[in-house]
Specification:
- The structure is a homodimer.
- Chain A is about 30% helix and about 30% strand.
- Chain A has two domains: about 1-115, D-amino Acid Aminotransferase, Chain A, domain 1, CATH 3.30.470.10; about 120-275, D-amino Acid Aminotransferase, Chain A, domain 2 (Alpha-Beta Barrel), CATH 3.20.10.
- In chain A, the strands form two sheets. In chain A, strands 8, 9, 10, 11, 12, 13, 14, 15 and 16 form a nine-stranded mixed beta sheet that branches.
- Chain A contains eight helices and 16 strands.
- The radius of gyration of chain A is 19 Å and the shape is globular.
- By secondary structure, chain A is α+β, with helices and mostly antiparallel strands.
- At the A-B interface, strand 3, helix 1 and helix 5 of A face strand 3, helix 1 and helix 5 of B.
Chain lengths: ~280, ~280
């Protein structure tokens, strides 16, 4: 179904779906993206996504994006849409000479409206199976954290399996520390401590990751951001994944090892749903 | 001048310059490219570039490109052109779900004709100054060697300097071994040994790098492919850079350290020019 859908796209505010082949986003992956859940017609955690996008622009030296204009454009694309996925891409535009960037870049803004993926509700409730990917994440402190367009590591990792019962692959860095899933962040819970890997050398600092770390305080959980090895993963009481579209997925199996969906994961899921409801109520006022 | 030029482009054989914003080349850098020198109307080392492109396709799981069709298309774009740079981009095309690749990808072929950069001849003769970049190359054995579209490390490295007297930046890996320049491969000569860094964990295996390694045999040079540290670089008798457009550039300065352009570099430059001439004569027969 998705393959035949027409994906509505705005490029620099104009309804069209093509960009120059000279765009540095294509030539070098010289740009950033955000993937937002849209619920009840509203992009969820919009301002957090904009903050990360701006941080990425700053890191790459791309002029900052006018978030109000982007919001107007997104609103136009979301008319009469209740639930979908909004993908925003910002590239450095065309120009420069080889890798050298142009002195006055004119960024390209792309907004795409994708269908909501409709994952079965049982993933939330009963959890998902994961695997460990062979593909590692290279150290790159200057690119770590931001959601840039250089995603071949994730593409290669996702090519490692076709089993439809495995919903995500965990990725380690070149030293063997677990970092994240191909499309999600990773958390483990043990002894009332919520641990998520340090993303200072690789990985993407997910918006829901940040939300979950904030919610943890309300549940009197201690939060630890540190290196996470395989042993700590296997010994954890609870394991879960986060991203903007899936929210929170409990992890229940990796190979032969199983975990139960735990009470902490369930509480965090509930608080996340509550946050969405609160956001909705605020918008309705 | 370059900024105002119109760059002729063929996309899948059609004279147009735009691609879908859903192309995985843009969304994830999911593709490859080749940059070829065109001299006397002919792409130089065409078959070597095609071999590397096919190796890259194989590594990424992109269907192999029909090199004959690509050659026909390139020929069409090069009519009445004596000297230019040909850039060929092959992406996985559109489709798939997130990072997951489509089962039957339809690759996108992009051929761009760029103006010849007209570097001053004195770079060949007197050599160039280089710097050492802060930006490191992350380890990524599965991506090492191929010329893929994830080039943010190079873009960030090239942003580190604006001094027009510095023509290239050398890049080290995360352990501090020198790997290559932002747009070139690195060689050092000492005691009749030609050394170039091992590219098994990061870096691009340049076409001219391979040619130079072959030519070295004719000059009775021993060739070593191994880790190259800063000390070995500074102690070298000769240092030079290679790529398809610059050919061979002697390196004469890094910070306070200077090298002379040496006899070996000069001999290799001459042999490379001879090869071009031989190629031309073969085409004329």
């Amino acid at each position: 179904m998705i393959a035949n859908s027409i994906i509505p796209v705005l490029i620099n505010g104009t309804p069209e779906d093509r960009v120059s082949s000279l765009d540095r986003g294509l030539m070098y992956g010289d740009g950033l993206f955000e993937t937002l859940a849209v619920m009840d017609g509203e992009p969820v955690f919009w301002s957090r996504h904009m903050t990360r996008l701006q941080a990425g622009c700053e890191r790459l030296g791309i002029p900052s994006v006018d978030a109000d204009r982007l919001a107007d454009e997104a609103r136009g694309l979301l008319q009469d849409t209740d639930r979908c996925v909004l993908k925003i891409i910002v590239t450095r535009g065309t120009g420069g000479r080889g890798y050298r960037t142009p002195p006055n870049p004119q960024p390209t803004r792309i907004i795409q409206r994708h269908p909501w993926p409709d994952y079965p509700a049982c993933y939330d409730e009963q959890g998902v199976n994961v695997r460990l990917c062979e593909q590692r994440l290279g150290f790159n402190p200057l690119l770590a954290g931001i959601k840039h367009l250089n995603r071949l590591e994730q593409v290669l990792a996702r090519q490692e399996w076709t089993d439809p019962d495995i919903m995500e692959g965990l990725m380690a860095d070149s030293k063997g520390n677990l970092i994240e899933g191909t499309m999600s962040n990773l958390f483990v819970v043990q002894d009332q401590v919520l641990t998520t890997p340090d993303l200072g050398r690789c990985g993407v600092t997910g918006v829901i990751r940040a939300v979950v770390m904030e919610l943890a305080g309300e549940l009197a959980l201690q939060v630890a951001v540190r290196d996470l090895g395989m042993t700590a993963l296997l010994e954890a009481d609870e394991v879960f994944l986060t991203n903007s579209v899936i929210g929170i997925w409990p992890v229940v199996r990796l190979g032969e090892h199983t975990w139960q969906k735990g009470g902490t994961t369930q509480q965090l899921q509930q608080r996340l749903v509550d946050l969405h409801q609160e956001g909705k109520r605020r918008q309705q006022r």
